[in-house]
Amino acid sequence: MTLAAPEPLADVYLPRPARVEEVTPLTDAEIFFRLRAEEPGMVHGLPGQFLEVTVPGIGEAPISISSSVTRRGHGGDDWTWEMVVRRAGNVTAAMHRLAPGDRIGLRGPFGTHFPVDSRETRGRDLLLIAGGLGLVPLRSAIQYVLDRRRDYGRVTILVGTRSPADRLFIGELAEWAEAPGVRVLETVDTASPDWDGHVGVITTLLPRVEVDNARTTAILCGPPIMYKFVLLELHKLGLPDARIWMSLERHMKCAVGKCGHCQINGRYACQDGPVYRYLDIARTPEAIG
Ligand SMILES: Cc1cc2nc3c(=O)[nH]c(=O)nc-3n(C[C@H](O)[C@H](O)[C@H](O)COP(=O)(O)OP(=O)(O)OC[C@H]3O[C@@H](n4cnc5c(N)ncnc54)[C@H](O)[C@@H]3O)c2cc1C
Ligand code: FES
């Protein structure tokens, strides 16, 4: 079954009620949430898409969907979404005060998605590269791919984090590495005394992986600085810009192409992003920064 990107609800401005089902701190600054829709009619969204989360009385913030539509428990109108929220300002701090049972609002899903269900990826080797909080949206794509493992070739997942204390989804990284034909390599920029894994920026992992440039599609999710250096390495490996995809986060408010907060050189990232094929933005210097 091929899943088309879902249309957001007709009234894209109206937050729909949802309940907080699980709240689990992952690090000092990031909390994992599971949210459940309280009304029929919402859809889950595809990897790379985001929801606008409203904390009543405080405000709204765009947050990536970290779970996959392919996971059990999703179906009919009984939707749950997983997210990880880093404390940044008012809305995210208010989210950090939420407890199971609290009510919030959700709008969306919005934006473009990673090409997990297209000829860009089906039958191809995948190189999935996550830096820092980029693992949150990329986890949705990873779950999707692992749930449809036979549709893809070799899967290589590279994960880079600032320090061992900032690592996300530690147990899941080990589970993913157990899947057939899946390789997971992790690195931290700075080690702690108890870290015996790889140390170095994420590009130092690339010489350790085999990339068949004729068969590989790369999907990147991380900070702009990561894109800059990873792109240099992918180009050295001979990967064409048409087979490199990335998510570009911008300040967003309305998510429906009205407020202009998310503009990248006249383009609205909430509409034709956040996921882009690199070929389409390679000539937009503002995109990568
Ligand atoms: C498509 C998309 C997906 C996102 N997914 C996630 C996610 O999964 N988890 C998560 O924790 N955050 C995510 N963010 C970032 C999150 O939306 C912002 O941190 C949040 O809006 C900040 O709102 P606030 O009211 O808490 O802070 P504010 O008071 O609005 O801002 C606090 C600080 O954060 C800065 N800031 C706000 N938004 C951004 C932004 N987009 N990029 C860089 N700096 C920003 C402000 O300039 C300020 O310095 C995503 C953003 C976008 C656009
Ligand atoms: S967030 Fe308002 S136009 Fe994109």
Structural account:
By secondary structure, the protein is an alpha/beta fold. It has helices at 90-96, 135-147, 170-178, 224-236, 269-272, 278-281, 285-288; strands at residues 16-25, 30-37, 50-55, 59-64, 80-86, 103-110, 125-131, 155-161, 182-188, 198-199, 216-221, 244-247, 263-264, 267-268, 275-277. The strands form 3 sheets. A 7-stranded mixed sheet has the order 10-9-8-7-11-12-15. The N and C termini lie far apart (38 Å). Bound molecules: flavin-adenine dinucleotide and FE2/S2 (inorganic) cluster. Residues 252-255, 257-262, 268, 270 line the site of FE2/S2 (inorganic) cluster.
> What Rg do the Cα atoms give?
18 Å
Order of neighbouring strands in the sheet with most strands: 10-9-8-7-11-12-15
| Main sheet characteristics | 7 strands, mixed
Through-space gap between termini: 38 Å
β-strand number:
15
- CATH level 1 name of the largest domain: Alpha Beta
Label the CATH architecture of the largest domain. 3-Layer(aba) Sandwich
Q: Summarize the helix and strand pattern as letters.
A: EEEEEHEEHEHEEEHEEEHEHH
* Mean pLDDT level: 92
Q: What is the number of helices?
A: 7
Q: Number of folding domains? A: 2
Question: If you consult CATH, what is the topology of the largest domain?
Answer: Rossmann fold
Bound molecules: flavin-adenine dinucleotide, FE2/S2 (inorganic) cluster
Morphology: globular
Helicity, as a percent range: 10-25%
What is the SS-derived class?
A: alpha/beta
- The stretches of 5 or more residues where confidence is low (pLDDT under 50) are none
CATH superfamily of the largest domain: Nucleotide-binding domain of ferredoxin-NADP reductase (FNR) module
Give the strand content.
25-35%
